[in-house]
UniProtKB/TrEMBL annotation:
<protein>
    <recommendedName>
        <fullName>Response regulatory domain-containing protein</fullName>
    </recommendedName>
</protein>
<dbReference type="InterPro" id="IPR001789">
    <property type="entry name" value="Sig_transdc_resp-reg_receiver"/>
</dbReference>
<dbReference type="InterPro" id="IPR052048">
    <property type="entry name" value="ST_Response_Regulator"/>
</dbReference>
<dbReference type="InterPro" id="IPR011006">
    <property type="entry name" value="CheY-like_superfamily"/>
</dbReference>
<feature type="domain" description="Response regulatory">
    <location>
        <begin position="98"/>
        <end position="212"/>
    </location>
</feature>
<dbReference type="GO" id="GO:0000160">
    <property type="term" value="P:phosphorelay signal transduction system"/>
</dbReference>
<feature type="modified residue" description="4-aspartylphosphate">
    <location>
        <position position="148"/>
    </location>
</feature>
<dbReference type="Pfam" id="PF00072">
    <property type="entry name" value="Response_reg"/>
</dbReference>
<keyword id="KW-0597">Phosphoprotein</keyword>
Amino acid sequence: MPMDEVITTQVENQNELNVRIKIQSNRKNSTGGEIFQIWCWKLLGMAFPIKWPVMQHSGRHRSSCKKSASSQSLDVFSSTFRILLLLMAFKNQEAAPRALVVEDVKLDRIILSAMLRKYKCKTTVAHNGKEAMDLFLEGNTFDIVFCDKDMPVMTGPEAVAKIRALGAHEVKIIGVSADSDGMKAFMSAGADVFVPKPMKISIIDSLLQEVIKQKNMRP
């Protein structure tokens, strides 16, 4: 994991606060595992620095952090730890999840790609359904695909149906749209999940956890 990486996400609590996480891995514990120093800033007009160590290979890191934070009368948010767990899992794998973003709107494409890269995903982009299908025809493989619905040349549902017809059954395909009929169109085409726009970071978090679990179960 690169030094001084900064991750910004939104935690889901009663105040919908933003949390910025800064992770440093610059020490080793007595058994050789890395200790991650974490700084969190709750952005509510003022910054509140929080610092505590997290043991990479300890199953008790969350409870340890809670105890440390509680001693300072500070809250610990679950979504923060899910992100950290995912980052640590990706670091221990030979290859991070391979993600494909299929989106014709440039801004949406940039935002989703940036969110995935925060999770260390190897991200590829396609501007329409045909480009996505061509990537599979060329022999590219992906662990997860985020596909928009209405695009020029080939729509998202059309692309999903053709990708499944090519035999790509293990890849997790997520249909994404702001349209009310998006779910029916994507699910009938063969998508695994439908997510309405705008996507929340917590949804991406959950989907990537499922992908990691599936990857670990494969021979």
